[in-house]
Amino acid sequence: MKIGCVKEIKNNEFRVGLTPDNVRDYVAAGHHVYMERGAGVGSGFSDNEYVDAGASLIDNAADVWHLVDMMIKVKEPLPGEYGLFHEGLILYTYLHLAADKEQTDALLAGKVKAVAYETIQEADRSLPCLAPMSQIAGRLSIQEGAKYLEKRFGGEGILLAGVPGTPKANVVILGGGTVGMNACKIAVGMGANVTILDISLKRLEELDNMFGAHIQTLVSNDSNVERVLKDADLVIGSVLIPGGSTPKLFKKKYLPEMKDGAVFVDVAIDQGGCGESSHVTTHDDPVFIEGGVVHYCVGNMPGAVPRTSTIALTNATVRYGLEIAAAGLEEACKKSEVIRSGVNTYGGKLTNKNVALAHNYEYTDLLELI
Q: What is the pTM of this model?
């Protein structure tokens, strides 16, 4: 199979879909890999490393798109790339279609076989290709939140951990999944007061066993969320419905009750966000203030640490990519329910229930199409 990888064009996105080691894996399996020149530079991988691994360098991204059977990326294609779609192309990347009707329509119109990292689900319901970025985003959320609590960014002007004789910051984490747990780990490590909310009592028990007396666990409901936000200095939104739109737990009506200069980091923004007041921002212009609360809503947070993020992501994605390349998408899906769960569009049909629900589109079972 002809495998392609191009330079990401999203604002300040320096990750890359394949490392030289990944290229070596594909080449060893008998595939041809075409890299856009300079695609890996932002993550610290030179063109020479890709050539040494067996890749062919192509000067123009459009030529890569037209040449390959499977395109491996990191972030969703942007409107400038929609015209490069061709029927039968396998697109293997993050898509987040529930929050992006325009992209959904473009993939359907182009009859692209779109496989989304974020919906690939193992039998134990884990999300192996989403997990590494969730780990990074969770840890980054505290790092970024601590920065934007600084007065020069509109924050309260407090130190997250405080110092002897001063109060520590109150950190509230909405959602106890991978993002929330990793945010909790960093916040606890920095010495903040941490409250974490989740709808699952079982998950709260796990978090309580993990962190003990260092955190407060609460059942996530409107009353508890509203109560804890009044004293919060930093709020992390880390709610996820695989492939679907995120519920709005952080409501606009809470803003007047919160502290001026409190910070809200909406990690769920790439799925539409869990804040009613959220809208996507970029690394160039990451924050805005509404109702006195600083909102950080960058849609590609892990792009800020591309070397770590690229290696972590591709460690997870290469396995499934090799399975698809070896058998072709159709046979791979027949053999593996896991890979089948990643297919969001196929031959102009929508094959993910949550995405179909988000846009009120017709859903088609993939097995009927292959």
A: 0.85
